[in-house]
Specification:
The protein has 142 residues and is an alpha+beta fold. The protein folds into two domains: 30 residues; 108 residues, Lipocalin. Helices cover 18% and strands 56% of the residues.
Length: 142
């Protein structure tokens, strides 16, 4: 009987530990590539200049690279890196450059819509190291 009781305690302990560890490993799943986009309204400020943003496409690659395209009067390409935040609907973005791969550094966040496939909002702030101008974006999907 004593052996049977110890066996049940051991089994209960292992089951509890397994249930505690599985969610931790689920959080560390590999990042998968995804493309999120949206039409909407936003403002891109580059120094004193302001551009109306009509649409955003964010390509988030499996290797952690982010390619963001802003559709304004001109098309703006931004590059950087991304990682998941504590929330499944928020992606942290580090801005490391533009199409020319240099000069702009900053950070921001992509907010994913409830459908999990489209972009709900994009905000970032960066500094152009060459011209010393701030670059800010605040975009909200329709």
């Amino acid at each position: 009987m004593e052996l049977k009781r110890k066996h049940h305690i051991l089994l209960a302990t292992l089951t509890t530990l397994t249930l505690l560890v599985i969610p931790v490993f689920a959080g560390f799943q590999e990042q998968k590539s995804r493309i999120v986009s949206a039409d909407g309204e936003g403002t891109l400020r580059v120094g004193k200049e302001t551009f109306k943003v009509n649409a955003v496409v964010a390509k988030l690659l499996e290797d952690g690279t982010a390619e963001i395209t802003l559709l304004t009067d001109i098309t703006v390409f931004i590059s950087g890196t991304w990682k998941r935040s504590d929330s499944e609907k928020v992606i942290d973005v580090s801005i490391t450059g533009t199409a020319t791969k240099g000069g702009v550094q900053g950070s921001g966040q992509i907010f994913i819509a409830d459908d999990g496939k489209s972009l709900a909002r994009l905000k970032f702030q960066a500094l152009n190291k060459i011209s010393n101008r701030t670059v800010e974006l605040d975009f909200v999907a329709k």
